[in-house]
């Protein structure tokens, strides 16, 4: 191996170690018998059993799961429509603005989006009488920034789509809707599924925007973890972090596999 290549490989190894060794240590210490999160006292499943008996944490996890499922589904539907328009619709007045608005949530700081969402919901509550901040407002907020990722994935898949299949179906008498339902949608389903999984992961671990739009009686799993850590790191957090890492890694792996499918 050439010296330059060896140096690049060494830097790459240090970079990955810096990112993933702390995560690996958290997962290892989730099986620690000690209450001190930095002192190894032997292998134990005590904190795993304790976490699954923690009603407050389980309730927050169930709420986050429901929010992620609903927001990911809405993001997939809206993102599919937006991606299809960006890839297939001919030039129309405001197309550049529409494309910019679709992509904006991906690059806009979450603090800015959280404040804007908060002002929107406060104004709606004042003039329209609702919705109250809670499950619905969190779903709306998560859908707003998640659909951008779905739209980009769908648009990229449609960019290299073989349109001769659609043309053949329409030549045989299929309507545009039938062609989309029977030809286009099944072929872009892997990309749509990948976008859904990505939106699900983003919603599941969002904290910043959720804090702005959640009500006083609504607490998602990331909010519960953040409030617990401020009072001191409990070993249950290591267990919870391990579960979140496994779920996120699994969904991202499935998402990547679906994206590579043809």
Automatic annotation (TrEMBL):
GO terms for cellular component: plasma membrane. It is a multi-pass membrane protein. The keyword Transport applies. It is found in: Cell membrane. Keywords: Cell membrane, Membrane, Transmembrane, Transmembrane helix, Transport. CDD domains: TM_PBP2. GO terms for biological process: transmembrane transport. It comes from the Bacteria. Its main location: membrane. The keyword Cell membrane applies. Residues 61-258 form the ABC transmembrane type-1 domain. The chain crosses the membrane at residues 7-31, 67-86, 98-122, 134-158, 179-199, 237-256. Belongs to the binding-protein-dependent transport system permease family. CysTW subfamily. PANTHER family: PUTRESCINE TRANSPORT SYSTEM PERMEASE PROTEIN POTI. This is Putrescine transport system permease protein.
